[in-house]
Design goal:
Elements (H helix, E strand, L loop, with lengths): L8 E5 L3 H10 L6 E5 L5 H8 L4 E5 L7 H11 L4 E6 L4 H10 L4 E4 L4 H57 L1 H19 L6 H13 L9 H10 L13 H10 L5 H8 L23 H15 L6 H7 L9 H11 L6 E7 L9 E2 L3 E2 L5 E3 L3 E2 L2 H13 L6 E7 L4
Helix pairs in contact: 3-4, 5-6, 6-7, 6-11, 7-10, 7-11, 9-10, 10-11, 12-13
Length: 409
């Protein structure tokens, strides 16, 4: 529905009373709301009281402000208003100055011809309202698009949290790897200035959900992965392409298509080899997020107590077939500026649990119902479940957790 209301206000400024009266009479049968002003020095008061006007006409030679000065005043506060200078032929130089400097839309010579003046005003009225209606419609469209984007972004964000929660319940090791990569990747991502909001958004979702395929592995695979960790996945051929399962799960969900593409191609080497083999793509044609994710996942897989982070990245820098070396060097450069967070173990009670804590022991009810597995990052959803069971029958306490601390503070 278009709620735009045309502006039909016209102001004529002239110190000659008879011309003001003639103008009012001329406009009587036109679809304009006519305003008259005899004292040019009151223009600002008139604009504030009765504006904005679609059109302002002003005589050039008047006491107080000249027409050029008056129309420049109008332009300063109402640049969209169309401005007409009413002038005699002897004022040609002033008229040229007004057009060049005052944003004058048109000029009319005295004495005007009634039909010619009415035709000019009708044309300028249509022009003004067409322009302002277009601006209104664009503004309304942007507003509706922003509201839709907020709704979709909120829905996508909540859906992402839900899927992350599912993964943390089913496989805490996969969830922990996801958290490690996010803690490294997201701060670096924020430091890259030339990435669009959309790119950052899609990459951050891919960071959250690249391990989602593990959640649909058979139960016997889940038992092994939960017991031995993600390294056990290499023993099961079914796990080789779990990233493709994640991509297939996500690509049909509105809003997740970009993240699904990133995850699908995150095992591709820079030279085009790697999974999926039937997709022929390489080099810079690979999505930026896929090249990022490959670097961070491989870095995490190679990590050990004695071989970590920046050392691993530097060891990867000569593998031109596998990685985008330009991007890898950017990650190395950015990585040195990212604060490394330390961890600290705490013994807490249920009431002190907070999202983001790493749970180091099984959380269970007083009757022995298991609520959260060890090595699981606590989420809002899992915390809500704990609170519900706590009201029903209580939770075994105290609980050992791990939190991150910033060494710079």
């Amino acid at each position: 529905m278009n709620d735009f209301t045309p502006n039909n206000k016209i102001l004529y400024v002239d110190d000659e009373v008879n011309l003001l009266s003639s103008f009012r009479s001329l406009m009587r049968k036109e679809d304009f709301e006519t305003f008259l002003l005899q004292d040019s020095t009151l223009i600002e008061e008139m604009l504030e009281k009765s504006g904005p006007f679609a059109i302002v006409l002003s005589d050039q030679r008047m006491p107080g402000l000249t027409g050029v000065e008056l129309l420049e005043t109008v332009a300063n506060t109402h640049p969209e208003t169309l401005k007409i200078l009413v002038t005699g032929y002897s004022d040609y130089d002033e008229m040229v100055h007004a057009i060049n400097n005052g944003g004058i839309s048109h000029y009319i010579a005295k004495p005007w011809k009634d039909e010619e003046l009415k035709n000019i005003l009708r044309t300028m009225y249509d022009r003004y309202n067409l322009t302002t209606e277009n601006k209104y419609l664009i503004s309304e469209l942007e507003s509706k698009n922003n509201k839709l984007k907020e709704l979709l972004d909120g829905t996508i964000l909540e859906s992402t949290h839900l899927l992350v929660d599912v993964l943390s319940y089913i496989n805490p090791h996969a969830a922990s790897q996801t958290d490690r990569i996010k803690s490294i990747g997201l701060p670096i991502l924020e430091k890259i200035a030339d990435l669009s909001h959309q790119e950052k958004w899609e990459i951050s979702i891919a960071f959250d959900l690249f391990n989602l395929g593990i959640a649909v592995m058979p139960t016997w695979v889940q038992l092994a992965l939960n017991k031995e960790g993600l390294s056990a996945a290499s023993r099961f051929s079914i796990c080789n392409d779990h990233h493709l399962l994640a991509a297939q799960l996500l690509e049909r969900i509105p809003g997740f298509e970009g993240a699904a593409k990133i995850i699908q191609l995150s095992r591709k080497n820079f030279n085009g080899t790697g999974s999926p083999e039937n997709v022929k793509i390489s080099g810079k044609d690979l999505p930026l997020g896929a090249r990022f994710l490959k670097i961070f996942v491989d870095m995490d897989k190679l990590s050990s107590p004695h071989f970590k982070d920046i050392e691993i990245l530097k060891s990867m820098a000569d593998q031109t077939a596998k990685y985008d070396i330009e991007l890898l060097n950017l990650v190395i450069e950015s990585f040195t500026d990212v604060i490394e967070l330390k961890t600290k173990e705490l013994i807490v009670y249920s009431q002190d649990l907070m999202p983001g804590m790493l749970i180091l022991q099984t959380i269970q009810t007083t009757s022995g119902i298991k609520l959260v597995n060890p090595n699981t990052v606590l989420t809002k959803t899992s915390l809500m479940a704990i609170r519900s069971w706590e009201k029903l029958e209580g939770v075994q306490e105290p609980i050992k957790v791990e939190i991150q601390i910033d060494p710079s503070k």
